[in-house]
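Notebook, student rotation project (T.W.).
Task set for the rotation: take a protein with a known small-molecule partner, predict the structure of the complex, and write up what can be learned from the model alone. Partner molecule chosen: zinc ion. Sequence and SMILES entered below by T.W., checked by me.
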Amino acid sequence: MRPVRLPALAPRPFEDELLSCWHWRVSSHYSCSPRQVENWISGGSVGPNPHLFRHDVSADQPATRLWALACRLRQVDLERLSLQNTGRSGASFVSDPAHRGVCPTCLDEDAEEGRDHYCRRSWACVEAVACPRHKIGLEINCSGCFRSGLFQFRSTPVGVVRLFCRDCDAIVSARRFPRRDQTDLLQVASLVGEAIGKGGSEFERIDAASRFLWSPRPEGMPYIAALGLSLPYGQRPSVAKGAAPLASLPPAWRAVTITTIANLLFQVAPKTVPLSSSVREAFRQFEQGPTEECHQAPPPTRTASVVNLRAETEYRQLARGIIQSEGWKSLPSKAGRARNRAIGKLMLRALNDE
Ligand SMILES: [Zn+2]
Ligand SMILES: [Zn+2]
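Predicted structure of the complex:
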């Protein structure tokens, strides 16, 4: 066996840190990727890259051994950072790292304490939509440019690692504006998290409820979008057929999904989510397994979700119509979400008024 090369500097893992985060923190000190570091320490003997983030759910033992040797750590202390030690099923973690949120206030605290920014293991859980410590929602959008996407670990000139927005190069932080209190959401998340932690049939029911809510109704739209709930802004994410919705959604959509699940399964009913008896009945049937009715529903074909774009001139005309409407003139009296909702209504009305 080739001797392992030893990088000069390797930060110690934090108690509640996620394995892939530690890999990135080590690598960012050398301005390269974990795969490049791995190739260097092994003398180039590492094969083509299996996806590194997969190791979060189940640590790759030979690779972890290599990293541990090179960074003068015990293998067991690295394996501890993977999610397999939580005793939860792999499906109870968000699979796409770009859809795992971060708490910007936790990161600000890291900076204040003079340590690296780091991602907490708990942020990978499907029910992790808010920070229990700071009572704010976990975020995937930059608070400077509002773009989403995976934040990037970079080393600063003073030698500490920070999470940066890839687009505007701002450090991820909560200092730009105050966040909304999410205590209600945290209660729902902890209830759902507790049930997931129990595993077995409890988790299966939550999984079934999430699949139900994201299954297409006959007209193609998933249930979650047809219940009259207050939905996150922006495009509705598409959930691939057969995929576990909770494991593949961004935090804002997971928040509305777990809130509705809590209502459906535990009768915890925040005022904003009234569920009709027909929805409960539809879920009961869904849970009983594939019925004739389900087979009759058309599969989510591409045609159902195709956006019929119109000519540019038509959009311009619609926009002009909106601005000249009475509804538009009454807008300035409203603020924040109410104003956004009113604009949304005007847009919808214009687009549907054929
Ligand atoms: Zn926090
Ligand atoms: Zn940005």
